[in-house]
Amino acid sequence: RGDRALRGALDVPVEVAVGLVVHAAAGAAHEDGAEHEHRQQVPARETARRHPQRGQRRPEQQQPARGAVPADQVQVQREALAVGAVLALAAFGLVLTTNTLTVLMSFAALAITLIYPYAKRYVSMPQAVLGLAFGMGIPMAFAAVRGDLPPLAWLLTLGNLSWVLAYDTEYAMVDRDDDLRIGIKTSAITLGMWDVPVVMLFYLGFIGIWTLALGQYVPGPLFDLAMFVALLQVVWHFTLIRSRTREGCFKAFRLNHWLGFTVFAGIAASYFVQ
Known about the structure:
The protein is mainly alpha-helical. The protein has 14 helices and no strands.
């Protein structure tokens, strides 16, 4: 039954669908390693942020994550560029196993990914650029499976953008004082006292858009239950960030994978019980 449900959902053989899932997961792992915001020193970000402004450096207390490239600036730049090139080539190799439309879209995705580290100098809400970078996997998945880009692909991408804006603003709230000190732009700084209510609106936008967009494709009570549980998690996130403490905001950011897993589990379970 699960095999038939998956075939019906994607209109492709299940072995092809599984292959695409594996490719997407591997590509996402490469992209995450290349862009992961704040928690690791990564290629493009490290190259762009060596000197956010002349005469200023990131505060000493923000040390590279364990396993990051060395602290020596010249060596860091060389290693960052080398690691970035390897990750980009590996991701592009995965894309080449799909179709022409997906390959062409990968260049747009690469451009957005490279722009993001510099967006913090010029864009008031650079988290939106990050959301586009992470969300490009959605239309690319539609292109790889269907060979076209239906409106549903863009609706899901818009919903995903709302989710990224929500959880990455939570992280920006953790670093707000440091980011103000070095003069870079973030959504938390731009929103100011409106940060908490707007984060809640972003979460509601994500859940609302995905619920409306997928309602006719994922029928059944399990999907509705999953979205209700996701809403409960949003309420929990509000209790974590309303005081704007670093610990609470970081915990909300760090545990966002449970919200995403809840939505995924609801969609997958709804298909497999049909």
